[in-house]
């Protein structure tokens, strides 16, 4: 499988860019996206870093997705769970991304972060190695409750984690509104500019990836 190594590099690059976009959005300091609010809220009361809370949350979600929703996961799902949290902690500890105190500069940084997250989504989703744990939860619940629109399911999940984060002291503001209502448009625009059809991607399970990796090591092209 000649492109296996290239896909893996593309996946890791996508996860790093995703973490970078998250740090931009957090340091914009004008309000947090739902999952960021939840993670930072838990981080505030537990004393754990953002990355550690993100990893633990991802693991718990994966348990629910696999155990109760019977969804298949890929190597990308696992790396998404671990690496984004690790990369966020590294970026935050390095202090490379400034923390905004100016409102208008904060808006610009937030929009930049949203674009970087959209670009990152293209990179890691297009590899076909599997969705992240939060997306897998949304997909699994949509299959479980077929009468409920997927938009309502996503809104219910994000509304719940946002309320928890706000209750735990995370900052909610204009950035939250932009993240909730603007992210879909930014992702759609980015994917359109890249001519990327997300529906055309067929994700492989972790077992299929293991088989492909073995074939790659043996220099055998899978059929």
Outline? globular
Largest sheet: none
Number of strands: 0
The CA-CA distance between the termini, in Å, is 10 Å
Please trace the helix and strand order, writing H or E for each element: HHHHHHHHH
Sequence stretches where pLDDT stays below 50 over 5 or more residues: none
Oligomer: single chain
Name the average pLDDT: 90
Query: Which structural class best describes the helix and strand composition?
Result: mainly alpha
Give the number of domains. 1
Gyration radius over CA:
18 Å
Tally of contiguous helical segments: 9
Strand content: under 5%
Helix content: over 70%
Question: Could you characterize the architecture of this molecule?
Answer:
The chain is mainly α and 223 residues long. The protein has one domain (4-217). Helix content is 72%, strand content 0%. Helix 2 packs parallel to helix 7 and helix 3 (50-67) packs antiparallel against helix 4 (75-94). The termini are close together. The mean pLDDT is 90.
Question: Helix and strand layout, with pairings?
Answer:
Layout: H1 4-27, H2 34-46, H3 50-67, H4 75-94, H5 103-125, H6 133-144, H7 150-167, H8 174-193, H9 206-217
Short description:
This is Membrane protein YczE. Pfam families: DUF6198. With 223 residues, this protein is mostly helical.
What are the key terms here?
223 residues, mainly alpha, 9 helices, globular
């Amino acid at each position: 499988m000649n492109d296996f190594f290239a896909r893996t590099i593309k996946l890791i690059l996508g996860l790093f860019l995703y973490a970078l976009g998250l740090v931009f959005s957090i340091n914009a300091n004008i309000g947090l996206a739902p999952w960021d609010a939840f993670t930072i809220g838990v981080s505030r009361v537990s004393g754990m870093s953002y990355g550690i809370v993100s990893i633990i949350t991802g693991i718990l979600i994966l348990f629910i997705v696999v155990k109760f929703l019977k969804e298949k996961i890929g190597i990308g799902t696992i790396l998404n769970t671990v690496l984004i949290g690790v990369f966020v902690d590294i970026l935050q500890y390095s202090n490379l991304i400034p923390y905004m105190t100016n409102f208008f500069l904060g808006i610009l940084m937030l929009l930049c972060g949203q674009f970087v997250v959209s670009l990152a989504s293209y990179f890691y989703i297009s590899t076909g190695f599997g969705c992240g744990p939060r997306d897998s939860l949304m997909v699994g619940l949509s299959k479980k409750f077929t009468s409920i629109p997927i938009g309502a399911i996503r809104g219910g999940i994000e509304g719940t984690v946002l309320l928890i984060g706000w209750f735990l002291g995370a900052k909610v503001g204009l950035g939250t509104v932009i993240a909730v209502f603007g992210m879909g448009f930014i992702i759609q625009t980015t994917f359109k500019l890249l001519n990327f059809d997300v529906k055309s991607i067929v994700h492989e399970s972790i077992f299929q990836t293991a088989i492909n990796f073995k074939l790659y090591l043996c220099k055998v092209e899978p059929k």
